[in-house]
Fold this protein.
Amino acid sequence: MMNFKPDSRPPGENTTQAPPAPPAPPAVQAENLTVVRGPRTVLRTLDFTVPRGQITGLLGPSGCGKSTLMRSIVGTQDKVTGTLDVLGRPAGHPALRTRIGYVTQAPSVYDDLTIRQNLDYFAAILDPGRAAADRRHENVTRAIADVDLTTHADALAGNLSGGQRNRVSLAVALLGTPELLVLDEPTVGLDPVLRRDLWNLFHDIAAARGATLLISSHVMDEAERCHRLLLMREGEILADATPEALRTRTGADTVETAFLHLVDAATETARTKETPTKKTPTKKTSTKKTSAKEAPTKEAPTKEAPTKEAPTKKTPTKETPTKETSR
Amino acid sequence: MTTTTPTTTGTTTPTAPAPAPAPTTSALSLSRTTATAARVLRQLRHDPRTIALLVLIPCVMLFLLRYVFDGSPRTFDNIGASLLGIFPLITMFLVTSIATLRERTSGTLERLLAMPLGKGDLIAGYALAFGTLAIIQSALATGLAVWFLDLDVTGSPWLLLLVALLDALLGTALGLFVSAFAASEFQAVQFMPAVIFPQLLLCGLFAPRDTMHPALEAVSDVLPMSYAVDGMNEVLTHTDMTATFVRDVLIVGGCAFLVLCLGAATLRRRTA
């Protein structure tokens, strides 16, 4: 997977990511992943991988298990069965705690501390000791700048707007050098300008640091900005592909339409207990293929980065048809 | 730095920041503990009203008590000394149970436990922060009682302070423990009468413990507040540290430590 890194990556910084073992395992690898919460099975025998150095979008309606999946990956979810390896170690391994940045859906910051005090504290947990004080200060200042809150650095978190508090929470995850960033709906409730800026930041982080980002969202237009997508519905993964491949396969103009296609198909399969689903979307593809190709021009500026890279990653795309047939 | 589109979110591009050294995940790290204590105190500093209430209420109560028992100073000595041990326990119980409940419900606890923070670091950080606060609270209350309200202490006021500090730690420990069983602030506050009041009734404040029904006396023998009050009374009546005082101090301190460990056990890295 390392061969398919975006070209925009500065050559010198590749080394930061490459661990000693040449075939680095994927950032996340799940086999038979099942999570039970109370009486409900929230995730049902999931198999998927999240490639390194890319932005993987986790999409699906609310309540489909996105947050549970993310909590499983960071190791805060109980009753996880199956195999779940994160950065080459089982999820929740103590050694992973400095290597993963995690942002919960609700901003988890101290309302009665200022932005800087919040970050100072979390930085001291990640990188303790008096000797590291200067490095911490630098990292905190940079993280605040990354989320565009420098002018508010000394404001109490409790006095900020919802979107601003979300960004403080995000800044905490940007402290240090997380190899994997797990962001649960980081752009919810933000205005379009800020959303664009944050997505640019996410792409910069992936490109410059070689970090892996797993970002959940239920806003489908954000899907276009990811390198890869995992579409979820009711605890199952409907599709695992690049946005481009997804659109092509379903013959839809947008990921949103593609998703709806897949949901309808899945519902139909569940109803008939047969598998005509595989054919329905592919037939439509032939008729709509042209429109799928035209579509990108509409939003070209915003999704420039992913579309450029999407065609270069052919191997992962191939996995998707097999996924579909197995259903 | 990179060829990607420049962000308007900040002047800095996310160049790889200074790398942190290899993670240390020992059970207890001094710097993480002090960082946690500093953070808890910093949070309190943004809430001056709470600090004022914490520090002033015991003083006001003692003042009130002094003039309630205006006619019998001996009663004031007894009850006043006991209260010097009970106040820190109650206030720290309340403050800690709410503070940790907020930590649990706001998601910060989940975030901290996903970070390289030991459970012991968090608990010790809280104990350190509220212990500091308790020293200030008890010092003021003790000073007021001894020097201005003529509380007649035979022993050293420092020993009073020591018992008060241990009581505060016990309160912190109980609050931390109990917050695991409270789903909301309403429930957390209701644990106060549930956990503290029985101890208050049985600790010997209202009636000497040996005059109670034998069953209740047996119960009071296993409640830590009984020893806190007993320790205070030892200081009140003896010039030196008696064996009973040492026993009382050890029991209260031991209970605080035990409950702190129980509290640590209620912090789960993985939750449903």
Summary: Residues 1-25 of chain B have pLDDT under 50 and may be disordered. The two ends of chain B are 43 Å apart (CA to CA). The longest helix of chain B spans residues 73-106.
